[in-house]
Amino acid sequence: MTDYKHVSAEQWLEWDRNHIWHPYSSVHSPVTPFAVSSAKGVRLTLADGREVIDGMASWWSAIHGYNHPALNEAAKSQLEAMSHVMFGGLTHQPAATLGKRLVDMTPASLTRVFIADSGSVAVEVAIKMALQYWIGRGRSDKHRLLALRNGYHGDTFATMAICDPVNGMHHLFNKVLPQHLFADAPATPFGETASDQDMASITRLIEQHHHELAAVVLEPIVQGAGGMRFYSADYLRRVRALCDQYDVLLIADEIATGFGRSGKLFACEHAGIEPDILCVGKALTGGYLSLAATLCSEELAATICSGEAGAFMHGPTFMGNPLACAIANASLDVLLSSDWQSQVAAIEQGLRSGLAPAREIPGVADVRCLGAIGVIELQQPVNMATIQPRFVDHGVWLRPFGKLVYTMPPYTISPDDLALLCAKTIAVLSEEHAQHG
Q1: Where, per the database record, does this protein carry N6-(pyridoxal phosphate)lysine (predicted)?
Q2: Residue 316 marked as a ligand binder
């Protein structure tokens, strides 16, 4: 009989190789993952004793770093009371407090909060809200969605259908996904005024299809996994105006950008607009547990509940999980009591100066930074089999994809660690070019 409690690192790594399917990986030619034994601050300690600076904040979620005392204490305290209880017919203080806090920190029109368990589900919930809203208004013909090319909204079925249909990760499923509409990705860079030419595609699609459009779904200002692209706040303002003009809802997917990552608490603030539905996640619990939320207006919620079903038809088993909500409240305490604006601004400046030398490396197409996001775009896709171990050998953890080498570090990273992270990134790219050309 296998002893699962007393196991060597070699044994559990063998179990991992034989049984675990890692994200976006093949069982035929798996890339050996690096074993992590612990994490503290901005560093991961590997099983072989090496330490690496985490430039990814665990896929952008660990904004306060790891093993934060306030978040640890919130988790321990909540565990002593209850780790979970169903949300159907029951409620508890952590969820009620989190809902009130999210309402207080988001646009004034957003007063209803649906607490889900992941970012993809939060966007699914937003889509269902939009569809039920129009059913409630007697407009079931408004059932299609309009998204942006180069967009990414998740890996579940409704979200796959609004990710980029050509360059995204989900074209294999096109035959079973709903067919929605896609506007050209905004080309006007952040900080510039959108041209009529840049607005032409989305304007035409809304004008032609508004009678069947339930909502426009977009990532405000920063298109994340679809290319780490930063676009004009003016573009976003004009999309909001088009939605108002043609009676189409606007869903803002702020899973990646929410809670300060772009330099504003929410990226919509760059444009001074309020979405009809807002999705948040990732950094909500500081990277401790999976949790997300979808916010909407009172009018939208009331219309949904006046419709045929008489209620919003969604209810995850772990909705409103008390443990996750308690940690989320602690994370918001830490964020809002800190000078996070200055922290993020300093990170942006450090990334701008630290990554600037990448422009001199042959094969680099662009270097761009916004808030606590730094991106080096290459002309050719990276070789993950060689570049990932090289980053670890240099003492940093980055997870490139496609042509993009990027970093979204914890807000707590020190200037010295940030400079080291940037310097090592430049060193690795220089070595890769020297070796592979």
Answers
A1: 282
A2: yes
